[in-house]
Amino acid sequence: DGYPQLSAYERKRLKNITENAKFFAALKLHESAARLHKIATRRQSNVTKRPKPKKAEEETVRRRSMRLQRVEPSVLEVPTQPEAEEEYPQVPAGPLPMVPENLVKNSKLTEELLATWMKISEIVSSLFFSFITHIVIIFSRYQNSLSSMVLSEDNVRKVVQNRICSVAIHPSESLIFVAAGDKYGHIGLWNVDCKGEEGAHVFAPHNYSVNCMHFSPSNPAHLLSLSHDVLRCGDVTRAIFDEICRSEENLSSFDFLEENASTAIVGYWNGSVAVVDRRTPGTSSELSANIGFKITRTVHVHPVNKQYFVAAGSVDVRIYDVRYLKSDGNKPVSTLNGHTKSVASAYFSPVTGNRVVTVCADDKLRHNNNTGRWLTRFRAIWDPKQEDCFVVGSMARPRQIEVYQDTGKLLHSFYNIDCLGSVCSINVVHPSKNILAGGNSSGRLHVFKEQ
């Protein structure tokens, strides 16, 4: 009524606003709000403040390839403990029963696989080994044999769960039997001729990556495997993984010093080597020798004069006489110079031993060896049936495995666009048949063979 100039609507609206203001004033909300604010402030002063969380950019480290970081591949090969111990429980020291990882599911089928391994080993004698190591195929026939080897879908199998670090092939001529060792200590055995699921089974005899494996040249019922802490012998006749040598220093590779496989030369990641005799009690080496290496990645014994072995590591490739090894001050018989970056492997040629093939990060032979962090480093291996030809993985596309002559000439590329889509870093060739097995970084084996 005090505002005659306002319309009836405006007077009614103003009246509602005034009444609402009186109502809220009667509730004393301002005083309540002030009192609550005071209480909250007093409580917060007695509470320790939580640290401010870091931004996502600060917590997450962007992954860059080793090539972009310009880091030498050698730093990646320092042995590490498996990332998930709860998933991969520690393997105890001492002999281990030869049972699969999933005993309930695979026990009967595994027994059949081991029985097959034992059966094919019985027919292979030491005389057979002596014969096959001296096979030399006429070169033109050898090239034709390479072209006849193909890969089919049936001959690709995920044998282990993780990256393959070593592969061995049984010398049997009756069937194809391959072993693969992965980065977490698992060994997969695969009967390639068995097309069902029962053809492959996984064992866990090691705690760390299986760097090196060989079937015994005198008794292929024995599969010797080396991890960072132990050298074991898988003896299928006793169904046991026995211990041969255990060390607190990290092991890298081994090779047999004799045809009967009773002694071996073992390489260490710290650069030294050791001689191991399987006939002596205990699991200690007979001799440890400093050869002046920062890292010893591979050791390989001469095929004829077995007192000599070649060691490779860092930029060094040297040949030593095992008869004159001592704890320190060892001098090489010969040194192979010319490497400018880290050497991944060095092996004598299979018949005469007059040649040595090496794989180096300097990419000689115009061959890309920069596998990076997530792939096992390449190791060029000689074809046991050919003195002057070797096999090595490739970064080329389509993915392939390559065969070179010692002159550097590329002889053949094994590939199959439909069945091979990954890099096979680790390969092995059968000693008498035209069979090639290549392992990749996801645990798969690819077997090329004649049709």
From TrEMBL:
<protein>
    <recommendedName>
        <fullName>WD repeat-containing protein 76</fullName>
    </recommendedName>
</protein>
<comment type="similarity">
    <text>Belongs to the WD repeat DDB2/WDR76 family.</text>
</comment>
<dbReference type="GO" id="GO:0005634">
    <property type="term" value="C:nucleus"/>
</dbReference>
<feature type="region of interest" description="Disordered">
    <location>
        <begin position="42"/>
        <end position="64"/>
    </location>
</feature>
<comment type="subunit">
    <text>Interacts with CUL4A and/or CUL4B.</text>
</comment>
<dbReference type="GO" id="GO:0003677">
    <property type="term" value="F:DNA binding"/>
</dbReference>
<keyword id="KW-0853">WD repeat</keyword>
<dbReference type="InterPro" id="IPR050853">
    <property type="entry name" value="WD_repeat_DNA-damage-binding"/>
</dbReference>
<dbReference type="InterPro" id="IPR015943">
    <property type="entry name" value="WD40/YVTN_repeat-like_dom_sf"/>
</dbReference>
<keyword id="KW-0677">Repeat</keyword>
<dbReference type="Pfam" id="PF00400">
    <property type="entry name" value="WD40"/>
</dbReference>
<comment type="function">
    <text>Specifically binds 5-hydroxymethylcytosine (5hmC), suggesting that it acts as a specific reader of 5hmC.</text>
</comment>
<dbReference type="InterPro" id="IPR036322">
    <property type="entry name" value="WD40_repeat_dom_sf"/>
</dbReference>
<dbReference type="InterPro" id="IPR001680">
    <property type="entry name" value="WD40_rpt"/>
</dbReference>
<dbReference type="GO" id="GO:2000001">
    <property type="term" value="P:regulation of DNA damage checkpoint"/>
</dbReference>
